[in-house]
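name: query_chain
kind: protein
chains: 1
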Amino acid sequence: MTNPSTIRSRLVAHRLRAGLAAAVLSLAAQACGTTEAPGPLQPTQPFGRVRFVNLIVDNARNPVNPTLEGLPFGAGVAYGVAVPASLAAPNTGTYAPIYAGNRTLVLRRTADTAVTLASIPFAVTADQDRTIYATGGTGGGAVTNFITTDDNQAPAAGQVRVRVVHLSPTAGSVDIFVTTTTADLATATPTLAAVGPSTASAYLSVAPGTYRVRVVPAGTAPAARAGAVALDVNNLALPANGARTIVAADGTTGVGAPVRGFVLTDR
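structure:
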């Protein structure tokens, strides 16, 4: 006979999973832009929002299957891919709503789910957005993580908010230029100067338009900048009232050259 404490533990786990499932399922309604009253699968408790980005620089361990509190949080998530943005409709979205509390995201190798790559504990705070980046893994090394708190308040009227998350250790400290698509780096002023790895910049407020984001080693002489660009994200459309995160990361082999760039939609 199963003892009472085991039954209680199972009930607690079931309720937690059911709550998380309800929160995640509510994403479908949000993604569809429903304006109806809350339905039976929408959150009934305080919740925050979470997304996961796979930046593991080891081809042998990609893709990954993330699970959150034992529930699937995506499958076959390749390097550079974000969840839930990559999920099939109607589950796609910028973030997944998750009940507030201490949570653990577990990453397993898709090709062999018996292999656990990392367990990432984090806290979900009510009305707060967080991004969990899986990082590291170079040469079979440990898979680590970098977690940001994402301030997704509405931009000033007619503006767009943009920030940079620097996750390329081999790039070292960098100067970042956010310019027009044809701007000359030799005469430009760094938008963000001496940004070290594992850093999330503050959000910048800019006019909507098409931009170019270039990264060079910190302190590069103006005349040498054009030949020292480590990352070039060109024709970046920034829409009014939106927000974007530009991520700089090492390549999948972990050597850091060339640095890879990804654009995440925050709002």
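note: The CA atoms of residues 29 and 36 lie 9 Å apart.
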